[in-house]
Amino acid sequence: MPSVFDAWETLVTGDARAVAGVRDLVENSWRRCLKTGVDPAGREAPLVCSEDRLGLRRERAEDLRGAAAPVMGDARAFLAETGTMMVLADPDGVVLDVEGDGRTRDRGEVIRLMPGADWTETASGTNAIGTALALGAPVQIHAVEHFCAGIKQWTCSAAVIRDPVDRTALGVLDISGLSGAHNAHCLALAVTAAGRIEGRIAKRDLNLRARLIEAVLSEERWPMDRLVVFDHRGRPVRIGDRARRLLKEMALDPARTGTGGAALPDWLKIEAAEPVFDAARRIGAVCVVPQGRPHLPGGARARDLTPPPICERPADPFDEVIGDSPPMIKAKATARRLAGVEVPVLLTGPTGTGKEVFARAIHRASAMGQGAFVAVNCGALARDLLATELFGYAEGAFTGARKGGMAGKFEAAHDGTLFLDEIGEMPAELQAHLLRVLEQGAVVRVGEAHERPVRVRLIAATHRDLPAEVAAGRFRADLYFRIAVTAITLPPLAERGPDIARLACHFAASAARRHGLVRHPPADEALARLATHDWPGNVRELRNVIEQATILTLADRIEAADLPATIGAGHVLRPQPAETAVSLDEAEVQAILAAATETGWNLAATARRLGIAKSTLYEKLRRHGIRRPGG
Ligand SMILES: Nc1ncnc2c1ncn2[C@@H]1O[C@H](COP(=O)(O)OP(=O)(O)OP(=O)(O)O)[C@@H](O)[C@H]1O
Questions:
Q1: Which CATH number describes the domain made up of 4-204?
Q2: Which InterPro entries match (predicted)?
Q3: Which of 249, 251, 274, 618 has its CA 20 to 30 A from that of 57?
Q4: Is residue 424 in contact with ligand 1, taking CB distance under 6 Å?
């Protein structure tokens, strides 16, 4: 009976006869290798990733690596004892990480069983990683069963790691060793380890999904019933009732949204959806199903639909920006003027002061208002990802690049507005790239040479002091002058006096509406306490406090006792007996007078004690006509 080696020789020397004594799965794999022209004399896998590219791949496989790391760590003792190594590869068969016996890993490097190498069948012939991916099943490949001559001393076992929900391949876990070291348990261990990794991914996904839904529910500008929420892998996880009905009427299958089906309208594809962040991490995305288009025009395909507006348009886009304290009146007036001229706008101000709210209002009030509003958080993505996100990439720009390449956000915002949040965090090389795009009005995708014209209105935002960043050499002066043609500075919430109560009433009403609760406006005493808080997290913090209190309160309105103890702590007004309850303005006057008396009318100390800026205190003194006794 011929040996497996004889059979391999028969096949690779061009004898088409059936080979005897070889497992079917191996023979089939060899035939695939011959067909795709794999070199049977090959001695090693090709290295397909430079350090940079490997970094990018690892980032893209962050979830997989995070889930695999502890499992691979647990196997360390077994691997050392048995003289084997464990290999984690991505779904393209490229090795991301290795763990295990040092000497085996050194020997592995000789055949390039190491990070950055491509172990698909088409690159490296029959092998456990590539063949498991090709078959979609766990596989052990013994010594001479490998297709390439240089690998025939190894025995490898691998299992595919799958997405817990849709079972697509997320990667491969492999255990390899020189044939003498490898034993029958390795395949069982590979299957168990892959299962444990899947379990960890499932747990993490559930957690992320809960955070995603929480983040989406707390965002009030989205019409929940027409919303499709995608998770971080682009799968729809929540579809509003009306969205479901509208999609059905458009003959679109809700279950296929976000997965990039060619027949989907562009606005329903994951690339066009608006990202949702949690602590700077993109945890999902949403898109709004347009209404008023119950049927596709006769014969038209779904993709012919035009993009929907992100939400209903109020008559005046600035009506959505709540606040008429003097600094807000000024900021809104400037924004309104700038909306009518096509110049870049820079929005500055501490976090949570409403920079994005202003950016959206400027966009809607502008000539580009019918176009897309595309927001990118420059601080939330690593350098390489930010480059491809903004400028797009060409087909083949890197291994794993999508077929046909991908348009970046600049192209997505064509004839609309691109909102670059946290622009101060943009790395220096990208600043140069951005400047070129702005100057030439054209974008060049990463890995491509030709320009694609884009007409985009740029609005940038930062909480940093950009002139200081320029002086420190961290931000390019030429880019600064280009984007800061006109700037609007949003003041901290604590300096907006009466806006605090207005915003609180607005957030309380909208939270009650969204949660289906009946609530009256917050009690005066609660508003007074809110007015004396510092609000380091600004409007966002206020919104969260009100949202929480609206849900938690047992009464039909938010009372002071429903607020967290930290709100207004230290500056709390003395509680008023019910019969002498005061209005918000009176309470403010009382608080100012009390603090001023306690500090002997030292206004800096009074402002500190009240937790407001000195300029706000002056404004309040003027507004209430308060003067120092005898002054
Ligand atoms: N004037 C306002 N009227 C109504 N809602 C507001 C206003 N300002 C802020 N908000 C709400 O507060 C939250 C934070 O606002 P936004 O994201 O625009 O702040 P930001 O300054 O862009 O924050 P960051 O710098 O952290 O990105 C949002 O939910 C927004 O809807």
A1: 3.30.450.40
A2: AAA+_ATPase, AAA_lid_NorR, GAF, GAF-like_dom_sf, Homeodomain-like_sf, HTH_Fis, P-loop_NTPase, Sigma_54_int
A3: 274
A4: no
pLDDT in tens, 298-345: 333 333 333 333 333 446 888 889 998 999 999 999 999 899 888 899
Q: Return the CATH number of the domain spanning residue range 494-624.
A: 1.10.8.60
ipTM above 0.85, yes or no: yes
Q: How many A from CA of 195 to the centre of ligand 1?
A: 42
Residues 516-546: tens digit of each pLDDT: 777 788 898 899 999 988 898 899 999 989 9
Q: Say which amino acid occupies 107.
A: R
Question: What ranges do the domains of the chain cover?
Answer: 4-204, 219-297+305-312, 313-491, 494-624
- Give every CB contact of residue 279 below 8 A, 6+ residues apart in sequence: none
CA 329, 331, 334, 339 dihedral sign is negative
Which numbered atom of ligand 1 lies nearest the CA of 543? Answer: 12
Contacts of residue 43, defined as CB under 8 A and 6 or more positions apart, other chains included, come to 111, 148, 149, 150, 151
Nearest Cα to 34, choosing from 48, 3, 13? 13
Burial 588-600 (b: 16+ CB within 10 A, else e): bbebbebbbeebe
Residue type, 555: A
CATH of 313-491, one of 3.30.450.20, 1.10.10.10, 3.40.50.880, 3.40.50.300: 3.40.50.300
Q: Quick count: other Cβ atoms within 10 Å of Cβ 538?
A: 21
How large is the average pLDDT for residues 145-173? 91
Give the type of residue at 229.
Answer: V
Render pLDDT for 20-41 as a digit per residue (tens, 0 to 9). Answer: 678 889 999 999 999 999 999 9
Does this model's pTM top 0.95? no
